[in-house]
Specification:
The chain is an alpha/beta fold. 41% of the residues lie in helices and 14% in strands. The protein has a 7-stranded parallel β-sheet with strand order 3-2-1-4-5-6-7, sandwiched between helices. Helix 3 packs across helix 14 (375-386), helix 5 crosses helix 14 and helix 9 (267-274) packs across helix 11. The chain starts with a strand and ends with a helix.
Length: 433
């Protein structure tokens, strides 16, 4: 098959760039022709990428006047199937490009539905984009409840795989002098690492042999450094940055903590389980509460607050036998995320979708034959796919003008980042997630 994937940016660390590189490489190893569209074509990918994967410069900016060039790029690849793996309005770029093309398309979602509907995107356009997909991919069966029933028969559930060095399969023996709680992921506001630092501060005096390591980089790093300094924990809490070999650090740790407000899947969580680490997170966090079984593979804090998190950590920090038992069970349950199983499912899904060639749903003719309950969503999608700036909710002159000028675009992105940060802080206080 010829498979086209929207890779967006590959030069920075993160769960989605890693997923894109791994899936593209695996498909290339299985003798498929893979085109990976990226915006950072001249940068070296942060994660390994198979030499046979063809990288294509992604030049489309969402303006209708530039759409034909993007369509020609796609036609040049002659794909049997296209895949866009996101949790945002980027899906709409592919809806616009593939409308009336006859090329089958997979909508792949990599976030929790609540967060996508309220923070990353909006529910109206999310469901509209799904209505145009020939197949829909979700991460967990529980996420099916977030979409209308008429979409269920074309939805497939495939979890993310766990990639770790098999030579470092088991963690090291716990040191009598030093024990480590580890967290790993991008330092974004919704990851709530500040709550983890605060929880550790509650416990630090009672557990002098324990330390905390928070791996990753992002906009919250400076704030976290100030917080660590304010608590007087510079010798106990480390913020080492990013790593290309997380398994080395899992191996040295005894507990994994993921304090996120929401997750799509939680790759680091499954990695930690594979390394026999018990997991602590929040019961309200989607993408964590589907993976971690409370009392079996870890502990889920009842309230999204530092004190509640600290109590769960305290239980595990106090009981080595409990840590060992939960870690062992976690490794057993993580076997469902082995790469071979996951990639077999993806290859089957891609073949199944490619078979829809010539009768893809995203075309004007299909609107006449769509189910009555589906037609309003497809009509909304058609409007989105044909507006002047495809992925902006409001199609007005101000947005168009701002997006045409790089310096205004930077201001727009900066303001959007801070508005999202304020929104997340408010929703955390109100208990929306």
């Amino acid at each position: 098959m010829k498979i086209l994937i929207d890779g967006y940016g590959l030069s920075t660390p993160g769960g989605l760039p890693r997923w894109n590189c791994a899936l593209a490489s695996t498909l290339a190893e299985r003798k498929h022709t893979v085109f990976l569209f990226t915006t950072d074509i001249f940068a070296v990918p942060f994660y390994p990428l198979h030499d046979a994967v063809v990288r294509v410069a992604y030049t489309y900016n969402g303006l209708q006047r530039d759409l034909e060039l993007f369509r020609q790029q796609i036609r040049n690849c002659k794909p049997d199937v296209c895949l866009s793996p996101y949790s945002s309005g980027r899906h709409l770029l592919w809806c616009a490009a593939l409308w009336d093309s006859g090329i089958p398309w997979i909508y792949s979602e990599h976030g929790g539905p609540n967060a996508i509907d309220t923070v990353a995107w909006n529910r109206t356009e999310r469901l509209a984009a799904m209505s145009g997909a020939d197949r829909i991919h979700l991460l967990f069966p529980e996420y099916l409840s977030s979409i209308p029933e008429f979409l269920h028969n074309r939805t497939r559930i495939i979890p993310n795989p766990v990639w770790l060095d098999a030579n470092l399969k088991y963690p090291a023996q716990c040191s009598e002098k030093e024990k480590i709680i580890i967290s790993m992921g991008r330092l974004d506001p919704f990851k709530q690492n500040a709550l983890l630092v605060e929880a550790f501060a509650h416990l630090a005096s009672g557990f002098p042999e324990w330390k905390l390591e928070i791996w990753g980089d992002g906009p919250e790093k400076q704030r976290l450094e100030k917080q660590v300094h304010a608590y007087g924990l510079k010798d106990r809490v480390r913020l080492p940055g990013t790593t290309e070999h997380p398994e080395i650090h899992y191996k040295k740790a005894q507990i994994f903590c993921i304090p996120s407000q929401f997750e799509g899947f939680g790759l680091s969580t499954t990695e930690a389980m594979t390394m026999r680490l018990p997991v602590v997170g929040f019961a309200e966090c989607s993408g964590t509460n589907q993976i971690v079984k409370h009392g079996r593979t870890g502990l889920l804090a009842e309230h999204m607050a530092s004190r509640s998190l600290a109590e769960c950590l305290r239980q595990l920090m106090s009981d080595e036998n409990l840590r060992a038992a939960m870690g062992k069970q976690g490794q057993i349950e993580a076997q469902q995320f082995t790469p071979s199983r996951v990639y077999d499912a993806w290859e089957e899904l891609l073949k199944e979708t490619a078979a829809c060639e010539g009768r893809a749903r995203m075309n004007t003719a299909y609107l006449q034959h769509a189910l009555p309950e589906e037609r309003p969503y497809l009509n909304t999608l058609k409007i989105c796919a044909h507006r002047r700036l495809v992925y902006l909710v409001k199609d007005d002159w101000l947005h168009i003008f701002a997006w045409k000028h790089p310096w205004l675009r930077r201001i727009y992105i900066f303001m959007r980042h801070w508005l999202k940060k304020i929104f997340l802080a408010n929703t955390a206080r109100q208990g929306i997630f």
